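For reproducibility, we list the full input for the 2-acetamido-2-deoxy-beta-D-glucopyranose complex.
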Amino acid sequence: MLLKGREGAIPASWAWKKMVRYLVAVIAIAGFATMLWPSSPKKTTSVAPTRAHSNITISANVKCDPDPDMLDRLSVRKLAQYTRREVVVDFTEDPLPMRQRMDTPLLDVKVRGSSHTNELGEPQDGCTIPAPLAVMAPKPPKMADASHIDFGVATSVSRLNESLDQFAHWAGYTRTRIFALIEPEEDKKKAGIAYVKAKADNLGINLIVKESEDDYLHRYFALVALLEENMREATRWGCIIDDDTFFLSMPALVKALSKYDDTKPMYIGGLSEGIPQIAVFGMIAFGGAGVFLSRPLLSDLATVYDQCEQMTYTGDRRIANCIYQYTTTRLTVDHRLHQLDLMEDASGFFESGREPPLSVHHWKSWFHADMPKLSVISELCGPTCLLRQWAFSDGWFLTNGFSVVQYSFPPEQNDLTMEMTWEPHNGATEESYLHELGPLRRKDDHKVSYLLEDSVIEENGRVTQWYIKRDKREGDQILELSWRKR
Ligand SMILES: *[C@@H]1O[C@H](CO)[C@@H](O)[C@H](O)[C@H]1NC(C)=O
Ligand SMILES: *[C@@H]1O[C@H](CO)[C@@H](O)[C@H](O)[C@H]1NC(C)=O
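The corresponding predicted structure, in tokenized form, follows.
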């Protein structure tokens, strides 16, 4: 049976997307102002600083009054330090290395007292570094047209609902389609599907939802048939993902796929980063990295679908075994597609200063990195700005969206070793990770890290990021970067 998708979404530019956001923000502010206006006509003086506001202890080192709501939102109970700095981005069409060396400091800049003004004569509080930081980034790529790629995901309504914000980052307004095969819903929960579809519509995602009685791993393989049956004229690729597969940049993905010959049967994916995992699961395209099947391969598989349904293994292994047993197509490894089988701390991967991955996975289970929040910065300076690194003269490394760190043994400009921060898994040794992640260097146990915990796009189009160094005893330290375009 063919499903009817909402095809051909309105092609929208960044500007259009932003306009909608802007309008929503204006309406929200207007609404808020109307609510507040009559009740607080005399609110002309600022609120007196309360150093013990709602149980938050603020150290004397903090020379300004941080917004208590912000501290609450960031779950800061004890604040030891709070530093703000504005970052101004200039764009260039010249090639830039992923890691740029800066001859200026990031934090080791004198912060003046509250009675001082900056060079522009604006009053400064005691937390803001007056001089804005100027950085260069590549001119953002155009919005990608991904109407030739269809994605398939096996999930449930509630997980699909939770995944939409992350899908919006890469799939929104790109004309791609996402086919979701979900567990059947009881009648009273049918409203959930309608809600999720409406939400997807609002985010510019072409979402087609189908219910299936099969268990998860059978549903996963059923995606192959679903994608094949629903191919449209433009379709060149089907891609099966997990609901926590995250693509950092659709323009980068489209560009990477264009290097492969989609008129031939092609099976493209990523191996596990750990050899023990490959020993267990085989030389397969690991599902979390995204499994790409070219149109001719999808057609080949349609002819053997029933036989493959009977095969022992399920999930991504069944796709591999079906291809290997019934066709002569073999896996093409794209080393930028990542299953990310890394336990606990994947910071070394994100802070490597190398070309960014196309996909990441396991970011809300094996380790924690809030990919949608990390990616907010791309609304301001494009996906090419994400994970871009600047190494400052005071030893701080800013990896955009991920962290601000200072190493006890910092990498040199051209050192592309990756710090092995993760816990070896399943009997792995350092060598187990070389085939995907090498060159590696040992973990820096004395690295000082501020990790991104929140990021928002403001009404004026600026992006604010909060990097936090947690310390239960001494108190947390917050670094707030407020980004704008020149
Ligand atoms: C402050 O602490 C008291 C006692 O520990 C607790 O009852 C109260 O809920 C706390 N208030 C806030 C805003 O966290
Ligand atoms: C989807 O998530 C929103 C919160 O983001 C929640 O309010 C809503 O009830 C959820 N709907 C379903 C069907 O799970």
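Residues 66-140+365-486 form one domain. Residues 157-158, 161, 192, 195-196 surround 2-acetamido-2-deoxy-beta-D-glucopyranose (ligand 2) (CB under 6 Å). Both points were considered when choosing residues for closer inspection.
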